[in-house]
Amino acid sequence: MKPYERAFNWLGWVGLLFLLPVGLTVFGVPGPLDYLQKTLGNFASATFFLLVFYGLILLRFLFGHSEIYAPVFLGMIVSFFLIAMTIEISFMKWYLQLTAKVSYLSNHPLIFLVGVAVALLGVSLGRLRRLHLIAQLLLLLVLPLAIVVAANIYGIAVFPTGGKS
Description:
Distance between the termini: 40 Å
Strand content: under 5%
Number of helices: 8
Oligomer: single chain
Number of domains: 1
Order of helices and strands: HHHHHHHH
Radius of gyration: 16 Å
Number of strands: 0
Largest sheet: none
């Protein structure tokens, strides 16, 4: 692996730090995000942090070390739509309102965790030399949605905050 690839790989992992205040807000601890919004203004909104996270993952995707690109791209897309179910993103309000009507998509902390896990799994699967498209779709699309729906139906991983953000 070349030195610049290693640097962009680390930059992608640093992007996870930008999800920390957003994740804490989803879990019912809005203090860090509120403090950042008071001190940084518009640059500390949940939308901004989410876009920085995906921007850094995109830089890792473009310039880091990946053998195949489809799982990284698919993981980014699926995780974005999962995380958009849990927080109010300025240009995705319509999606949040649409998914709020579906009762088995109400466990916001679990959906947020699954969204982050899908992004990380997509990045990890990008390091493989070969992975069939069917396996990618199963691992990055079908399985996460099945986990969210099954957990809500059977009452598994219900967080006490209720997950309202």
